[in-house]
Amino acid sequence: MKAIVNDKGEKQKSIFEEFKFAKYHITLKAKEHMILPEFKGSMLRGGFGHAFKRICCANREKTCDGCLIKQSCPYAYVFETAPPEDAEHMAAHYKVPHPYIFEPPLDDKTEYSVGELLDFHLILIGKGIDYLPYFIFAIRELGEIGITVRRHKFELVSIYAVDCLTNEETLVYLASDNIVHAQKVSLTGLALIDKVKEYNSHQLTLNFLTPTRVKYQGSYCFNEIPMAAIIQNLTLRSNALSYFHGSGIWDDSLKDLKELALDVAVTKSYIKRREVLRYSNRQGQKDSLSGIVGKVSYEGNFEPLLPALLLGQFIHVGSDAVFGCGKYEINHD
Fold first, then answer.
1. So where are the chain's domains?
2. Which of helix, strand or coil describes residue 281?
3. Which pLDDT does position 12 carry in this prediction?
4. 322: burial class by Cβ within 10 Å (0-12, 13-18, 19+)?
5. Is the separation of the CB atoms in 114 and 31 below 8 Å?
6. What is the average pLDDT value for the chain, to the nearest integer?
7. Over the stretch 310-333, which tens digit does the pLDDT of each residue have?
């Protein structure tokens, strides 16, 4: 990666070296017969947000605008993330990327019997990792409130931290002992950079597992996804997450990766559009999470692009990542 030099002429680490995230495997158990949507990302994130606000919010307003304790409130930081007044980047944006991602199960199962388990993953990014106890408390609270309009009740069974490189799991929380076990399981981008050499630097395939909606040149890519579109989105997202939730680094040189990605060609594309709708309580209407799923193969020079692509497997790409959209895996060719 190209070195960054600060105002003092000192070499600064790449955001890919400093980037920190953690992954958790969460298991719920149905207390009653449950009927759930096929794509559960919106259900998990929406219900969780309601429960999180219920345990944290002091003013009970619909938004955090004008709240006197907004700067120190866990809910405001996690769910109403806004750029600080002195932000040098994205200051004109009302919202910035959130420090979490709900990864719903990939199956389309809709009915769960009493006692049946539902598994999903949670990704926490940068300072968001410190808020894990709040997430645990909110998930327990959501189990008492219930999910979907039917208010299905569930029990939080366990949470395990996942080693993103080996998929090994270590215990964080068990309902039976109600104790949060501290686990240092966060992964830095530096560990991902070390894995670059394991990949073919001229051919690879991206397998888009959840609805992916990437905007490029003013429109969403539903028919074909150029590598430049993916890299443009990932570098902006990585920079924003690093700047607002991580080490505070913003690397302007990352925009050069998009130019390199223009030379990467699509060789095979087997994608289809998956329609997913959610109801937004905030907007009072249905909202689309629709996007493409399937595999796209590319050919070109991936060596400078691989750090961003490897990180993207965990931070997702495109719109509505917090709901689990834009999840992909890199397949070796």
1. 20-187, 194-332
2. coil
3. 57
4. buried
5. yes
6. 87
7. 999 999 999 999 999 999 999 875
Right CATH for 20-187 from 3.40.50.300, 3.30.70.1890, 3.90.79.10, 3.20.20.140:
3.30.70.1890
Classify 28 as helix, strand or coil.
Answer: strand
Task: Report yes or no: 29 and 321 within 8 Å, Cβ to Cβ.
Answer: no
**298: buried, middle or exposed (CB in 10 Å: 19+, 13-18, 0-12)?**
buried
Measured CA to CA, the distance from residue 236 to residue 220 in angstroms comes to 16
Please state which architecture CATH assigns to domain 194-332. 2-Layer Sandwich (3.30)
pLDDT at 286 over 80: no
Q: Which residue has the higher pLDDT, 298 or 166?
A: 298
Spell out the alpha helix ranges (H) of the chain.
15-18, 41-56, 74-79, 132-145, 189-193, 227-245, 255-261, 306-315
Partners of residue 29 on adjacent β-strands: 117, 155
| Cα(40)–Cα(102) distance, integer angstroms | 9
Cβ atoms of 329 and 313 within 8 Å: the answer is yes
Lowest-confidence segment of 10-14, 46-50, 120-124, 138-142 by average pLDDT: 10-14
115 phi and psi angles, rounded to 5 deg: 90, -10
Matching fold, domains 20-187 and 194-332: yes
Q: At what angle do helices 306-315 and 227-245 cross, to 10 degrees?
A: 70
Kindly state the tokens that stand for 315.
């931070």
CA max distance for the chain? 62
Tokens of 63: 């938004």
